[in-house]
Amino acid sequence: MPKAVVSQDTERFDLKTLDGAFVELRRLSYGEMLRSRDQAQSIRPTGDEGDNGQGEMEGVFHISKVTEFRFSKAIMDHNLEDESGRKLNLSSKQDLVRLDPRIGGEIEDLIIAMNEPPTKEEGEPSFPGPSGVGDSAGKAGSAKGS
Asked: Following DSSP, what letter does each residue of 120-136 receive, concatenated?
């Protein structure tokens, strides 16, 4: 029978934004992708009353939480260091906030591209939900290919 579980195999990508840098990524499981999406948005009261006298609600997006979760689960190895030569902990919020945004964006695009679901005709996602939450470019298909 065909295996329907995600492989724990990793794939190495040489980063284009930093000479000599690499990341080793693994594909996220469907459960991890769902958990990542659960963290993407929450609803909270605004404190205002609407036209009908009911309290109003607003949706809040938590892109940084999604990115932190995906980095912590997908990055298996890398050779990125800080200015003192210490290997960055890309599962740590403290190190992520210091990461060069070009490098972080490239890694994020690679993770999204690696975990993008197969599409139906004309680019329609095969299942609902924000497949690219945190993807500033909208599509990350071109990021893969190292």
From this structure: -GGG-BSSSS-TTTT-T
84, 95 Cβ separation under 8 angstroms: no
Summarize the confidence of residues 41-66 as an average pLDDT: 66
Q: What is the pTM of this model?
A: 0.68
User: CA geometry: angle at 60 spanning 100 and 113, to 5°?
Assistant: 45
CA distance 5 to 88: 30
* Rounded CA separation 14/146 (Å): 6
Q: How far is C-alpha 111 from the chain's CA centre?
A: 6
Domain ranges of the chain: 10-47+58-123
3-state secondary structure string, 16-85?
A: CCCCCCEEEEECCCHHHHHHHHHCCEEEEEEEEECCCCCEEEEEEECHHHHHHHHHHHHEEEECCECCCC
